[in-house]
Structure formats: structure tokens, C-alpha cells
Specification:
The chain is an alpha/beta fold and 253 residues long. Helix content is 36%, strand content 15%.
Length: 253
């Protein structure tokens, strides 16, 4: 394994995952944890990502005029890493009909419940919202008087904890740093909304998906190949921030 360019390959994949190919972000997040001492199975998994990219060479986000404000999706996979039982957070920021910012990151501490892992992911999302809001306000794309930014999450306990905090034995150990989510809600800067797991686009960033679910997620995120880009613009429901349409049929293994 010492002769194989595993570290260099992960560097290339990381560049793609952070620029245009958010669909491989979770795979790269997992593989990058083994750069110091990779095994044959890690090299095989990295080559599988290359095969997937070869079959979707022309895929990328398609931006278009939608009339929708920026909105976010967040998710977490609780204790998904069997080696240390840390969770993975996933965040999507959607603007102009496609992702503009995304993260698939391993949480720094072990979460004792799925609510805690989802709450940490929500905290990461709010920090991204503040950063993007400052940028969009500076370029006069947003104003301080704009309606609160919508954040979609599939965990009702995490949403309830952010909006109606009640300290008890299960939640008092949460770090104070995460409680600024509630402050943003009270300041009317963000609006938290529940969304089902099947509709949560950030699920793509937290765990491997089956071929069918992957196709559906890419279609809703408008990460399309050349054929999909050539199609006419599809109608978008301004009240519900998910685009409808058919997958363009490019091979995904």
C-alpha cells in the first residue's frame, strides 16, 4: 500500500467534493479518515468512487432563476462510525435552484442521542446561514428586513429543543455553543421547519444511498448531466423548495 498514491487520490477527490460534486462528499469524508494508514479495502473503495465519476463525467449543479430565497437542509447520521461512534453532519444551502454550499463533516464529539447529533448539525447549519447572510447582505442580494431564512430538518425533538428549550437530564449536558440556534430563532433570523427523512436532501451527505434514492436526490438538487441541462426549465413551486422533474438517465452504479 505504501506505493499506491492513496493520499494524492483523496486530495483530488476532495477538490471535486468541495467544488461541484457534492454527491461524493460523504464518500470522501469517510475515505479521508484513512490517509495515514490506508488498507486495500480503502483503495478499492476510492477506485469505486472513480468509476462512479467516470459514469457521470458531465454532472454538475444547474443554476437557474427560481424566485426562491436561500434555504437550508440539515441532517445527521447518529453514531454511524463504528470505530468511534461519532456522528456525521450534512448541510446543504440551496440558492438559484441548486446547492451553493454543502458540508459532510464528522462531529468532534460523541452524541448520546439522535436528537443531540441532529442538534449539532442544526448548529452547524445556523453558522453557515449567518456567514452566507453576511455575504449576500454585503453584495445587496439580501437586506436585514428580509423574511427569516428557512432551515429544514427531519428531527422533531431537535426542532422542539431549539424553539422551546426545557432543561432536563437528557439535554443539560449539551454544549452552550449550540444554544445560539435558539437565539437566532428568537431574533426572527431563521425559521425552522420539519421535513420527512425521505424529502430531506441533506441525507445524501450523511450516509451512502441506494441507486434509486441517489437518483431522486440528484434530480431534486438539479445536479444533472449534459442532457438534463439542455432540457427546458421546469416549473418550481415557490412554497415548497424542491424542484420536480425526471432524472436524465445517466449511468449511476
Amino acid at each position: 500500500m505504501a506505493r499506491l498514491p492513496y493520499r494524492q487520490l483523496i486530495g483530488v477527490l476532495s477538490y471535486l467534493a468541495h467544488t461541484t460534486r457534492s454527491d461524493i462528499a460523504n464518500a470522501v469524508c469517510i475515505l479521508s479518515q484513512h490517509c495515514a494508514n490506508p488498507g486495500l479495502r480503502h483503495w478499492t473503495a476510492a477506485k469505486r468512487v472513480l468509476r462512479y465519476l467516470k459514469g457521470t463525467l458531465d454532472f454538475g449543479p444547474v443554476y437557474r432563476r427560481t424566485g426562491q430565497a436561500i434555504h437550508f437542509y440539515c441532517d445527521a447520521s447518529h453514531a454511524s462510525d463504528a470505530s468511534d461512534r461519532r456522528s456525521v453532519s450534512g448541510v446543504y444551502a440551496i440558492l438559484a435552484g441548486a446547492p451553493v454550499v454543502w458540508h459532510s463533516v464528522k462531529q468532534k464529539t460523541v452524541s448520546l442521542s439522535s436528537m443531540e447529533s441532529e442538534y449539532k448539525s442544526l448548529s452547524l447549519t445556523v453558522r453557515e446561514e449567518m456567514w452566507i447572510r453576511n455575504i449576500l447582505t454585503e453584495v445587496q442580494f439580501m437586506t436585514p428586513e428580509d423574511p427569516p431564512v428557512k432551515i429544514f430538518c427531519d428531527s422533531r425533538p431537535a426542532l422542539d429543543h431549539a424553539e422551546n428549550y426545557i432543561e432536563n437530564s437528557r439535554t443539560r449536558h449539551l454544549e452552550i455553543a449550540h444554544h445560539f440556534v435558539r437565539e437566532r430563532v428568537e431574533a426572527d433570523k431563521i425559521k425552522l421547519q420539519y421535513i420527512s427523512t425521505n424529502e430531506n436532501l441533506a441525507d445524501l451527505l450523511t450516509k451512502p444511498l441506494s441507486g434509486t434514492k441517489l437518483r431522486v436526490a440528484l434530480n431534486k438538487l438539479f445536479i444533472l448531466g449534459y442532457q438534463g441541462r439542455c432540457e427546458q426549465e421546469r416549473p418550481v413551486d415557490k412554497e415548497y423548495p424542491q424542484a420536480e422533474g425526471e432524472f436524465d438517465g445517466s449511468p449511476i452504479n
